[in-house]
Amino acid sequence: MKRKIERIAMISKIVLNGVASYKKEAVLDTDKKVNLLYGLNGTGKSTFSEFLYDQTGARFSQCSIEGLEENDTVLVYNQKFIQDTFYEPAGIHGIFTLSKGNAEAQKVIDIKSAEVNKLTEQKQKIEEKKTKNEQKHLDEIEEYKKQVWKIKREYTGGDRVLEFCLDGLKGNKDALFKHIISLEKMEGELDYSVDDLKKEAQQLQGESQSRQLLSKFLIDVEDIEQSKLLSKVIVGNKNSSVASLIETLGNSDWVNTGIKYVHIDGEKGVCPFCQQKTITQNFLNQINAYFDESYNRDKSQIEQMISRYDAEIKKAIDFFNAIKDDSFLEKNKAEIESLSANLTSVLEHNLNTLKEKAKTPSIQVSLQPINQIMESINSIIENANNEISLYNQRIADIKGSKNKIRNRFWCLMRKEYNSVIELYTANEKAYKQSVKKAKEELQIKTSKINTNTALIEENRKKTVNIDEAVENIKNGLIDIGITDFTIEKYSEEEALYRLKREDLDEDVFKTLSEGEKMVISFLYFIELCKGESIAEKASNKKVVVIDDPISSLSHIYVFNIGRLIHNEFLRTEKYDQLFILTHSLYFFYELTNTNHTQRKETQKLFRICKNTESSYFEDMKYEDIQNDYQAYWHIIKDKKQSPALIANCMRNVMEYFFNFVEKQDFAQVFQRPELQENRYMAFNRYMNRESHSKGQNIFDIKEFDYDSFRDAFKKVFETEGYIDHYNKMIAL
What we know:
Layout: E1 13-16, E2 26-29, E3 34-38, H1 45-53, E4 64-66, E5 73-77, H2 79-87, H3 103-148, H4 150-155, H5 173-181, H6 194-204, H7 222-225, H8 243-249, H9 252-258, E6 268-270, E7 277-280, H10 281-290, H11 293-323, H12 333-359, H13 371-396, H14 398-416, H15 418-463, H16 466-479, E8 485-491, E9 496-501, H17 514-530, E10 542-547, H18 555-570, E11 577-582, H19 585-591, H20 596-602, E12 603-610, E13 615-620, H21 628-636, H22 643-661, H23 681-687, H24 706-719, H25 723-731
Parallel strand pairs: 3-11, 3-12, 5-10, 10-11
Antiparallel strand pairs: 1-2, 1-4, 6-7, 8-9, 12-13
Helix pairs in contact: 3-5, 3-15, 6-14, 11-12, 12-13, 16-17, 21-22, 24-25
């Protein structure tokens, strides 16, 4: 049977932002049990531990932690912990641990703890299944949203005239999806299409005035078509002496045309027909008498009819040119073109017929009627005018017209995407049922867990033994060489203790050094980690955070504190995760696992850095660990670091190198003439200040010029003959 791996409390991600030196978002990601963080004073270590100490503090509103669960415990050792433990109360808070002597209570705790673990595991499986179903449900909904999102892609952008139908819905998929599933399904077929709506919308697009109705098509040629002249045989004067001859020839029109070419020059003129001089003036007068006034009047009327008919044809052509691109006639374009061609053909035929009549007045002719063609054209015009009237009504209320188009558009979309919506509805119903079932199961498991936890807490109260914890602290003080004070009972009823020096009744805290207070508080913290901070809490999932436990210690205690951390935290499985912060590379190195394989599996190393923009985290390799002297040079080379920090590191480097390595008087170095230039004066002042070991002592620096400071810093080494050392360290 496969053994189940028990869940451990594990912080996977810490985000610091908008607090103290973390002006920008700084992210620490980890998957290791042991996390070691190195950073110089002022880089942001305290803010890091304070956030873990008080995660709900108002100033940490932009910060967050990932990985912890509700019952996980985070135990933090930092300055705030020391203040809360020693300075605010009159004595030490109660430290609650399990008593080895209360076997019966311990047995109940063990049984109920196992049962809680089992119930928690079952609850976790239900929650995992619930989460899995939730994700599956969300994925399916996302797929439905993608399908519905096609509406947005198809009908928006460019000159797509129906885009206004998606106003307020094209910004995100959720809004569009919520809208379409809220619509009721339309039964039956719809009597319009998207193309119909596009045409309506296009008519409204960019216009603000109504349209005039189209004029009817009218050609005034009815009197010509019905003229009696068309069937009249038009001939000349029968009383003329040449009438019988012309009638015998049977072609008066031929004679009438020919005499126009007769010119008499002398006694006779040339005959246009035989080209001989046979035409006398008398004969010509007789022919002209044949074509009398009546003949010429009839012929003139025919010429006028031709002129009118030709003018009406041009009117017809102009009419069709005027309406051919009208949007309201677009659907009838082919029919109008056919009627236009047919009409033109008839009109041209009739015109040619009239011209034949004019040429040969004696023939009888008839014209083809155009009434039916005109009626067909005017029927189309009338239908278009009906649409124009409706359009004008819409123009009068554009907003109302668009709303109608929008409503009809969404009726079409609801019908088109009905299958998607029905799948969503069925999925949503099934999912809600599964959520309800999971919620009921979780309530049952939670109720049982709470019942068993209450029994655990009730029996744990019986096992609280503060005397045992105090004895452990006493032994811890003796173990690291502190024997000039001890801990005594302060209040039996309240289970409070106090520290006491031999033969002194005064407040012992006023006579303790900072280092001694730190040692005592750290021993207290170790006991706290073994038990619980309050008796009512029953968590065994613990994350321990230790912030610079050697910051104020004498070197005599540093090794002992390191040994305590190794024994109590690093070489035990009591705690799920550790975060240890320090300003000392030596101490950082002491806590690092030297075994490469073990270190890779269990430890992660970080550097906390700060520049003018913000504090931030960097991953460190084991090979990156340097001594403090090298670390100072690393800061000096980074122009982005704060002026105070750079100046302080320069001072520390020179003090270490000249006072301790070269055994020179540090102050005498700045008396050299080479360092008396005006641009080096600010550097000289800050290098010769007292109390330089803490960065805050030079935070009032106002004249910092990085290039001038670095030039002066280099000049010191160059003047004293150590330029090779400078070049070596600056190049690392």
